Amino acid sequence: MSPPSQSHTVRPRCPRCGRPVELCLCHLLPNLTPRTEILVIQHPDERRHALNTARLLVAGLSNAHLLIAEQLPPDWVERIADRGWRTELLFPGPQVPLLTAAGQGDRPRRLVLLDGTWRKARKLLYLNPLLQQLSQVALPEGLTSRYRLRKAPATGALSTIEAGTMALQMIEPETDFADLLRPFDALIDGQIRAMGEDIYTRNYRRNEL
C-alpha cells in the first residue's frame, strides 16, 4: 500500500507585515502618522512576492492603505475623485513636475503609488482612467536604490517602500521618515543570509561596484 500523499503546507503569515510568522518584521515597523495619506494600489500578481515592500510601507503608517486590485472598486473611485482632497499620482514621465512640500492651509493631501513591475504599473494606469486624470508628480532623478537583490530596470528606479519614504520626506521635511526603511533593510539582509555570501557576491555585489 502506497503512503498517503502529503498536501502542500501553507506557512502561516503575520497579518500585519505579511511575512511568514517565524520571519515577522513587525518589531521593526514604526507607527508614523504623517499629514499626507498614502494609497498604494498593488497589482494582484505582486501580492505573494517574497519582497513585498508595499505592505511594509503601509504597515508602518497609521494613515496608509493597500488596495490590491487591477481596477478601482466604486468606493475608492468616489474617494479619489473627492475634490476636497489634493490627490496626486507619484509616477514618472516626460516633463512631470517634481513633488513639492505641502503648503500651509492646503486641502488634505493624498499620494497614490502604483506597486508592480513597470509593465504592470502602466497597466494599472491604463485600466483606471481616474488615475490618468490626477496631477502627476515625480521624485528627483539620480536616486539610488538600497534594493541590493534587484537589478533595477532603469537608473533611479526605487522599490515602493523607498519611493514612498522619499516622497513623504519631501512633502513633510520637518519629520524624519527613515524608520520606515528599517524592516526593508532587515528583509534584504535576511535574503542575503539565506542565499549565502558566495552566491550574493557572485550575482549581485559586483553591481554595487
UniProtKB/TrEMBL annotation:
Signal sequence extent: none
UniProt-listed Pfam families: DTW
Claim: Transcription regulation is one of the keywords in the record: no
The protein's Enzyme Commission number: 2.5.1.25
Ranges where the DTW domain occurs: 10-196
GO MF annotation list: tRNA-uridine aminocarboxypropyltransferase activity
GO biological process, one term: tRNA processing
Entry annotated with the keyword Coiled coil: no
UniProtKB keywords: S-adenosyl-L-methionine, Transferase, tRNA processing
Family, per entry: Belongs to the TDD superfamily. DTWD2 family.
Protein name as annotated: tRNA-uridine aminocarboxypropyltransferase
Protein source organism: Halopseudomonas litoralis
